[in-house]
């Protein structure tokens, strides 16, 4: 089934996983996948290194394994460091394996890697994938503006190009303040962006994540969030439970506000995914 059709039936609930490091065998993710699949998400997306990480081969294998388990896979595909021939090879292999859903991305610009100019923006890749005629295509979007964009107006205009090129649905960057999402959704609607928008939710459940968030993630941290993280940062169990509770609160509010879907950044942590799934199963289906 194509993901775009599920939005017509219900609030979509999906997961994201990332492949293991290239120095680890692929099997290290199998038990995680088994547990996540048992939670019956509408689909599971698999991230794909934008170049240089060397673990992108795993992404196709993981997506195939998800498909074999009866769950719809979505393959992320960043383009900025790949030639058209490499993108073609990935799409052909995806098609041969029956993977019908692609999250088309530019990928972050790595200052140490000269970008390949075959596809400069995600919209270029979407236009290209569309010519294949056999994929459902998603795109990324940024409730707090993409860091490369001058401002929100420019970013939304560019987002509209992505949708006009053929994106069937959008998934947001993580955010911790739902008001950013609501404002963004309204601006997108005013700009004529009328495809479903899934909200990307990241449960922050350990200290490493907090540190990474502060240094690398553009998402703003509301005072309520900072208070909770500061209070429990030295108590791993309490921090985990507080992170789960915070994510559940976000999801309940989003669903009550008519969100099209929730995309859970699971961080390959099935315990956290299970706790959240159990807490929201009644409201997602209601
Ligand atoms: P684009 O849509 O190309 O946008 C990038 C910038 O260019 C923006 O500032 C935009 O305003 C501007 N722009 C866009 N189109 C045009 C245009 N036509 N003309 C002029 N300017 C334009 N990265 C990975 O490497 N692997 C992954 O698996 C991965 N998964 C992700 C999943 C999600 C849900 C999200 C939100 C991000 C993910 N990323 C991933 C990160 C993503 O690759 C980066 O955020 C990247 O910097 C931008 O990708 P994009 O597809 O949004 O780019």
Automatic annotation (TrEMBL):
State one molecular function term (GO).
FAD binding
**Reactions catalysed according to its record:** (6S)-5-methyl-5,6,7,8-tetrahydrofolate + NAD(+) = (6R)-5,10-methylene-5,6,7,8-tetrahydrofolate + NADH + H(+)
The organism's place on the tree of life at top rank: Bacteria
Q: Tell me the cofactors it needs.
A: FAD
Q: In which pathway does it act?
A: Amino-acid biosynthesis; L-methionine biosynthesis via de novo pathway; One-carbon metabolism; tetrahydrofolate interconversion
Identify one Gene Ontology CC term for this UniProt entry.
Answer: cytosol
Q: Which InterPro entries match?
A: FAD-linked_oxidoreductase-like, Mehydrof_redctse-like, MTHF_reductase_bac
Top EC group: oxidoreductase
Q: Can the keyword Transcription be found in this entry's annotation?
A: no
Q: Which Pfam families match?
A: MTHFR
**CDD domains named in the record:** MTHFR
Keyword tRNA-binding annotated: no
Q: What is its EC number?
A: 1.5.1.54
Entry's Gene Ontology BP terms: methionine biosynthetic process; tetrahydrofolate interconversion
Instruction: Show the SUPFAM superfamilies listed in the entry.
Output: FAD-linked oxidoreductase (SSF51730)
Could you list this entry's UniProt keywords, alphabetically sorted.
Amino-acid biosynthesis, FAD, Flavoprotein, Methionine biosynthesis, NAD, Oxidoreductase
* Assigned protein family: Belongs to the methylenetetrahydrofolate reductase family.
PANTHER family listed in its UniProt record: METHYLENETETRAHYDROFOLATE REDUCTASE, METHYLENETETRAHYDROFOLATE REDUCTASE (NADPH)
Provide the protein name.
Answer: Methylenetetrahydrofolate reductase
